[in-house]
Amino acid sequence: MKLALASLAALALGACTPPAFPEGASGVSPQPATPATPATVVVAFDRESITPLIVEGLADRSTGREVKANDPVRIASISKLLMALAALRLAEQGVVDLDADVSAYLGYKVRSPGFPDTPVTLRQLMDHRSGLRDASGYVIPLGDSLEEKLQDPASWYADAPPGRAPFEYANIGSPVVASVLEAASGERYYALLNRLVFDPLGIEGCANWIGCSPEMAARAVTLYRDTGEIARDDVHDLPPGCTIPVADGVECSLEDYVPGSNASVFSPQGGVRIGMVDLARVGQALVQEGETLISERSIQAMLAAADPVIEGQEFFCGYGLHMQALETPERECMDALFKDGVTRYGHAGEAYGLRSGLWFDPVSGTGIAYFITAVPPRQSAEDEGGFDERELALIARSQRLLAER
């Protein structure tokens, strides 16, 4: 039987709004959490309901605090999908044009050194086709210059112009996109996420902990490496401490920050913190009938951008507008997560020992949001694609739980 996430609506979940549930609710019998149990949460959703399936492990090993279904965690590159939703909302409002030269927003020329007459656009950046590369780094701390980073030839693919450059997954594009959104709107990036994505859905999230309540920060999931070493978001990474990258000798203060100058300080490529129940509500907004976040036209544009085959890719075989397609028919890719032949869309995340994902099937209207921590690093430089065996086992376990319901 091909189940995957087929029809959660058929489950006896009650009302047609997200049900109330205990914070630690799980689809399996609770087991005592130990430091050896990685913090793990899986939440399934359909158009009408949200259901925690697996909630286990310790959010903070130093205190023994067990993880809860909606405890906030750094979701890594799923953050790019949220940024794309903000960009599309601003495009729908006429604030930005996805195909305009980003130089017009930033106030300086953004050009690949070998192609000074070819503009760079938001669409190219969100398709990873702008020619930007991560070779010279992508974190530009407060006090450093995004403009100078973009003038470094090492930041660009040298052999083809933007728009015709081969697909190359590049984190450096995210600070450019976020800075454009700031410059066009006059708002800081974290405020844009709140206004355009989180607030309309009645959820709480934040970029580098900026804008989240103290109560939310107190529930942070600390990220551990497989060795047990703390990777991110222990007490030293949380407010009131400094939560943004800062250049040497620069005060950790956003008081004088000018929107559009360097949104890298908000880590748009991977720095969103959000709980899985709230992330599932983002997924719900993408499968619900009606326009709860972005228009149906924009949703279809994202899906269509992810559908074309990207030659030469083993993992990002279908990707566009910061949306990835998994298990598309007639592709030979390392992207079989559900292994049921159903094409799903969304984004993966990987950083600091964490693997995460938000995936949905627009046909059935079902989806899943998850994270697992303390995952070992990739074993070689060539091992750049595919899901970790722990992710595969986690999804298989979640599918069995759904089948049992």
UniProtKB/TrEMBL annotation:
Q: Where is the Beta-lactamase-related domain?
A: 56-383
Q: Pfam families this protein is in? A: Beta-lactamase
What start and end residues bound the annotated signal peptide? 1-22
SUPFAM superfamilies cross-referenced by the UniProt entry:
beta-lactamase/transpeptidase-like
Q: Which domain of life is it from?
A: Bacteria
Q: Does the keyword Signal apply?
A: yes
The protein's UniProt keywords, in alphabetical order, are: Signal
PANTHER family, alphabetized = BETA-LACTAMASE FAMILY PROTEIN (AFU_ORTHOLOGUE AFUA_5G07500) (PTHR43283:SF3), BETA-LACTAMASE-RELATED (PTHR43283)
Name listed for the protein in its UniProt record: Beta-lactamase-related domain-containing protein
Phylogenetic lineage: Bacteria, Pseudomonadati, Pseudomonadota, Alphaproteobacteria, Sphingomonadales
